[in-house]
Amino acid sequence: MRCPYCAHDETQVVETRESDEGDVIRRRRRCTHCEKRFTTYERTEIAMPSVVKKDGARTEFDPAKLRASMMLALRKRPVSVEQVDAAIERIQDKLVATAAKEVASSRLGELVMRELKRIDKVAYVRFASVYREFEDVDAFRQLIRDI
Considering the entire predicted model, what is its pTM? Predict the structure, then answer.
């Protein structure tokens, strides 16, 4: 670990503590060159798949974009932040479970629709109306009948 003060490559771990949840390890380190101390945190990194857009462009999976699109559909709906967080967590778990390096944006959209249908039907219809790009009212009516 490189020292943030003098950029020396050799540091010594002085103390190690695990968080209460057990998902983060805190380490106090001392630089062997300048003797200054600093703290580092170690946590598990889960690689999320890249998202392949309709035009073939690839982008990094971004939970903030997922949250923003869901919150737009859920605007003025009686759904708690905890419910949205749980839905996003379920989507991420499904993506990780596939162990795929890439996921089509259409697949991601289907996962979002499934979660919205589960937590709020109105938000589901809002999201689906934009996501599926309905060309006429009949397709929209069919979606509502399916619910």
Answer: 0.63
